[in-house]
TrEMBL record:
Membrane topology field: Multi-pass membrane protein
Repressor keyword on record: no
Subcellular location: Cell membrane
Region ranges (Disordered): 1-32
Organism: Promicromonospora vindobonensis
Highest taxon above the source species: Bacteria
InterPro entries according to UniProt: ABC_transp_permease
Entry protein name: ABC transporter permease
Segments traversing the membrane: 36-53, 65-84, 116-141, 147-166, 187-205, 237-256, 268-286, 291-309, 315-335
Keyword entries, A-Z: Cell membrane, Membrane, Transmembrane, Transmembrane helix
CDD domains: TM_PBP1_transp_AraH_like (cd06579)
Comp. bias intervals (Low complexity): 1-15
Amino acid sequence: MTSPTEAGTGAGTAADSEVANAQRPRPRRGISLTDAGPPIALVVIFGVFAVLSPDFRTISNVQNVLDAAAVLAVVTCGISFVLMMGSIDLSSPGIMGASAITVALLVANNRNDNDLGILGVVIAVLLAAGLGCLSGLALVVLKVPSFMTTLGVSAVGLGVATLMFAGVQPNVSDTMLEGWAVERFLGLARLTWIALACVLVGWLVQRYSRLGRYAFAIGGAEEVLALSGVKVAPYKVAVFTMAGAFYGLAGVMVTSQLGAGLVQAGRGYDFSAITAAVVGGTLLIGGRGGILHSTVGVLLVTVLTNGLVQVGVSPYWQGGVQGLIVVAAVAAAVIPQRRRNQVTK
């Protein structure tokens, strides 16, 4: 007779096997347009701007593009896991603001005698992870839609940041944190290397960990996963917690760039990150895409923004162009699926 523990273990093993089989590459006759489209678009857009502007194709400008994409890439790493589950996360502005003020007050600054160095960075990221965990708990316990819970947590983060700000901007004098934005290695700022490390970590989690596999499975068929014996709620909380940690690190990176902690350090990054992820091929409905897809989207959005500036397009038009790209990317991803779901009679 099988014990409940053995039965639970067997169910979990079977669920892991099902998820692994679902993600195992199957033979295909060719690369799908959804996967190949964003990289092709990146190459085409880069080529167009290289022809239109000689300054765009210089090595220094390519370095500038990569440096400019660093913070957005880290935020997009976090939001990609949430999107893979089929949820929406709007908490990054508040979490980044709280993290930015926290790290600015914990490292050497003009407001107090603190000088915690890297420990201050760790504490700021842990605070951000805690706020992300709060989003996940509100989602699974209160059964509130993710966009509402994360919007509320963003407001909480902004409130915490405003209280710590206390009307006096904390300017950073910590050489380690300032060096992230100033010092360069192989032509790229240290912030860019940190972003590349985050992309690598995110990809490893997505590809080789149970959390990454289940994030895909939740977005693809949450009910099936739950029926197979997997407790979905802890994985949802874990994903939001990890996303919060990414946002917190991004807030620290913004503080390094500005040399000061700002409540509005994360303003606009929620929309930009969702834009980059969707453009790269990570679906809003979940179950498709991932870190590498979203990273291509980050590069595409950054190259587009840089190229529009290089050719003299007004900044007022750039937001509209990004919005059109998002609509086109979503339509390109959804229309084939709608056709696939149609019943032939």
